[in-house]
Amino acid sequence: MHVPIQHIIGTVALIGLTITIVLSYQIITDFLQSDLRHQQLQQVAENVAINLVEIGNLANFGNSANGTMTRTLDLPVDLAGNAYMVGIVNDTSQGICYINASLVTNSHISAMSIIPLQANQSQIVLKTSETGTLAGNQVITYGSTIYGGAGSTVVWAWKGSGTTWAGIGRLNGGG
Fold first, then answer.
1. Of 41, 142, 162, 166, whose CA is between 20 and 30 Å from 25?
2. Is the pLDDT of residue 21 over 80?
3. Burial, 37: exposed, middle or buried (Cβ in 10 Å; 0-12, 13-18, 19+)?
4. In angstroms, what CA-CA distances link 147 with 11, 46, 60, 100?
5. How far apart are CA 76 and CA 44, in angstroms?
């Protein structure tokens, strides 16, 4: 059986072209999915940041001391099947605090939103490093990081004498 060399070269070129098209399609769709996840994470980070500032300001300017205020956040449980986490970060080197939202399985896909608080002009202190619980009318488990929007995700603020503490956490129920 005689097969001309042109047929072999043509077949190899078609196979190579098919592989190139499939890989290009995969790269483009991965990029678009990453960009979409980044935009979703950006919305989550901005939502948490603005609600944190609002609840902190409400508690700070309120009249009652030793009172806890909360606001329940309506965050998605996951982002198209991808688990994500939201954290408060205190970047002391730059003098800013921000909300960082990232995918749990791929931390390279993340977004941040600066919390618009001036540390020297505000009496609001953000809980960025420790974990604990607040008890009162509501029991809140707080920490510097929460995972997804499952459960009652809240931003909270507690006003003491002269200082208002604020953070993110989960509402556990009545206390």
1. 41
2. yes
3. buried
4. 51, 16, 27, 12
5. 9
